[in-house]
Amino acid sequence: MSETGLRELTLTVNGRNHAVRAQPRKLLADVLREDLRLTGTHVGCEHGVCGACTVLVDGQPLRSCLTYAVQMEGHEVSTIESVATKGRLSVLQQALHEAHGLQCGFCTPGIVMTFEAFLRQHPDPSEAEVREALAGNLCRCTGYQGIVLAILRAAQQMRTEP
User: Fold this and answer.
1) What b/e readout covers 130-160, taking b as 16+ CB neighbours within 10 angstroms?
2) Which class is 7-82 in CATH?
C-alpha cells in the first residue's frame, strides 16, 4: 500500500484482467462503475437489500455494494456487460424483453445476473422457486408477473435448445 492509502489490485472482470489503484475500503460496485466504467451494475439501496448491484463472483451471485474490491483478487467477477455476446441478448435477456419483464430497467441487471446463476443450478424451476429466488431483487415498476413469466420461459428454452 502506498503512502496515500491506495492499493494496487488486479481484478479479473468479464474475463479480462484490470489493474486498479483503490482504497482498501472501496466497494466493488464503485470500482466497477468508477474505475472500470462498467456502469451496468446499478447501485440502489447500498445495503444489499434491493439486488440491483448483483454481480457473479466465481459464478455465484454477490452484492457488489457490500463487497470490498480488494476481496476480489483471485476471483472471477462477471457483470451484466458480459451476458450479451456479439451484440446478441442472452436467452434470459430476450425472454425479459418479450414478456415485458422490465420497465425502467434499473433492477434488470441484478435480476439477470441472479437468474443467470439460478437457472444453471435449477434448470427446471417451479413458479414458486422462481418467486422465492426473486425475493432478493426489488422492482418498483413491474409487479413481478412479467419477470416470473420471462424466467420460466427462459428456463424452458434453455432446456429444449442446446
Assistant:
1) beebbebbbbeebebebbbbbbbbbbeebee
2) alpha beta
CB 73 within 8 A of CB 5: no
CB 155 within 8 A of CB 125: yes
CATH 1.10.150.120 in the chain is located at 91-160
Could you read off the pLDDT of 39-49 as tens digits, one per residue? Answer: 999 998 888 88
Quote the DSSP letter at residue 70.
G
How far is 7 from 20, CA to CA, in rounded Å? Answer: 8
The pLDDT of residue 96 is 94
Confidence label for 14 from pLDDT (cuts 50, 70 and 90): very high
| DSSP secondary structure, 4-20, as one string | TS-EEEEEEETTEEEEE
**CA nearest to 108, candidates 126, 120, 94, 121:** 94
Judged against a pLDDT cut of 70, whether residue 2 lies above it is answered with no
CATH class of 91-160: mainly alpha
| For residue 1, pLDDT beyond 60 | no
How far is 18 from 108, CA to CA, in rounded Å?
25
